[in-house]
Amino acid sequence: MITTARGRRVLGVAAAIGIAAVALAGCARGGDSGSTDGETAASPGITDDSLLFGISTPLTGATAGPGNCTADGALAYFGMRNAEGGIEFGDGKTRTIEIKTYDDEYNPEKAAANFQQMVADDVFAAGIGLGTPTNRAWREAAIEEGMPQVLIMTGDKIFSTREESPWQLGLVPTYPQEGAAFGEALVASGEEYTVAALYQNDDYGKGYWEGFQEAVAGSDNITIVKELSYEPGPAGNTPNYLEPQITELAATNADVLFHAVSVVPRAIEDLTKADAIGWNPVIFLPSNTASPGGVLTPAGVDADTYPGVYAAGFAQAAAAPPFAETESGMEYFDAIAEYAEGPDQDGKSFPHCLWSWIGAQILEEAFTNMTEPTRESFYEALTSIDSLDLEFAFGPINTTTDGLPAIQTVVLQKFNGAGYANVEVVE
């Protein structure tokens, strides 16, 4: 059953939940209520019959395309599992899980306000939402509240560092991991390349650039000829905001454009601009702005526009034609069609839908190992997953490594005109 209230989407999902305890939140304000008859007191947001999970993500604005996907993948997965009769969890109880989404418009202030609303709504745990600045906006508040903020779609290392973030866990590979994958492949090619870079002056852009620089340091075939950064924020939502930077970088005639920009419309404009002024370098794009349908096609990019468009990958691509021909792929698209709520959601224009689906599968694994109805027990179960094989992820899921997210396997991929194919070196 799906309902909508005050701009937030709610999905009732049957799930059974059990919990295994950690000693984390003795000082958290969101601690357990009283108990009777020797039973463990339940944390806010969970009863014998239900659990409430929140997702704060951009549902409107410039980042709404991938933002809606971060919610829709989880809505689709749990909707499908509900239709199958629910999930058997660690304590043997079957509960209804409500997924409630909150629109942050990719605005940190709105994200922080959303967290306060989640507290008021008695959300048990939250996560899966998109964005580095938006998730950082309520990280400390979540720690103080003792609310798990997990499987979020940001490659910021801070969310997977347990000492700094004792209630957090990232889902996707870190930004330095992605940047390094491209740098290593560029070095391994053995060819000489000059590199020009454009990146956001925040943890997102600097993380990608840091990983790349470390990977190429000391190599004799890679030369960085120019790097430009820009301040993200409201001004970055202005159309054609980065055209002057692309023009300046094009003047170097560099062989490679390293493009670490998170806003989809700016990525489309920059790719269009470079081609229009006759600069056709090898392109590197972050995983969240490399979508064939959501970025490359709108930018007029085909297999011949640039010598190569590369991105770091960690999961199958729903946009690739063979995906829809598999049994699991058909199951995924059927669930998206049935339960997704994003405007014109097809489940493949942005990869975040599939990443969200994977995140929901990881949540299910944690739910099946919970033995008590507490946030502490949930978080321990979630961070104790080792070698979980999921069909859509390139490598096993491991949440036990401090400093790394749940998905750790990263490969380099090259755009072939329809989708991406894995490669070992830049060709």
TrEMBL record:
Q: Which Pfam family would be a valid example here?
A: Peripla_BP_6
The cross-references to PANTHER family, in alphabetical order and at most eight, read: BLR6548 PROTEIN
Species for this entry: Microbacterium thalassium
- What superkingdom does the record give? Bacteria
Question: Signal peptide position in this chain?
Answer: 1-25
Signal among keywords: yes
Going by the UniProt record, its keywords in alphabetical order are: Signal
Q: Can you give the residue ranges of the Leucine-binding protein domain?
A: 54-416
Which spans of this chain does the record mark as coiled coil? none
**Family of the protein in this entry:** Belongs to the leucine-binding protein family.
Report the protein name in the record: ABC-type branched-subunit amino acid transport system substrate-binding protein
